[in-house]
Amino acid sequence: MLTQPPSILQGNLDNLTWKKSAEARYKCNIDASSSKRLNKVGIGVCIRNDTRSFVLAKTEWISPLREVHLGEALGFLSALEWVHVLNLGPIDSELDAKRVVDSFLSDKHDATEFGNIIQDCRTL
Fold it and tell me: Whole-prediction pTM value?
């Protein structure tokens, strides 16, 4: 169980370097890709510790292919579910999907499928 909610780190275009997590915290990088040929969304998750050492990684396919923002949101949800099960403690999450990050941090209610996925992320 996470003892603190994950933090979302946003980089600006001038600073696109990997940033290590705070001391005694893990860092979870999440990204999604799409394959029209396979009609699937691919998700990649990598966890490192506060010394940048590799801890765990996983990939996953979600079918059918979704719009980019939905694929990224599903990737975020999948990563949050995974780290919850792993019970690693405090984790910083980082993803490059601005729409997902902005929606996650927003107080606005969104009754769409995307909004429901984001709400599930907040719940975790």
Answer: 0.80
Residue that the structure tokens 């009754």 belong to = 111
Give the pLDDT confidence of 2-54 residue by residue, as tens digits: 334 444 444 444 555 656 677 789 999 999 999 999 999 999 999 999 899 99
CA 113 to chain CA centroid, nearest Å:
17
- Sort residue 52 into left (φ over 0), alpha (ψ -120 to 50) or beta: left
- In the structure encoding, which two tokens stand for residue 22, read together? 């705070």
Structure tokens at 64: 């059918």
The domains of the chain, with CATH numbers, are 21-123 (3.30.420.10)
Cα-only R_g, the chain? 14
Q: Are strands 26-35 and 91-95 parallel, antiparallel or unpaired?
A: parallel
Q: In angstroms, rounded to a whole number, what is the distance separating the alpha carbons of residues 76 and 70? A: 10
Only one residue has tokens 């019970």, namely 87
Collapsed DSSP state (helix, strand, coil) of residue 118: helix
What is the dihedral sign for C-alpha 58, 72, 67, 36?
negative
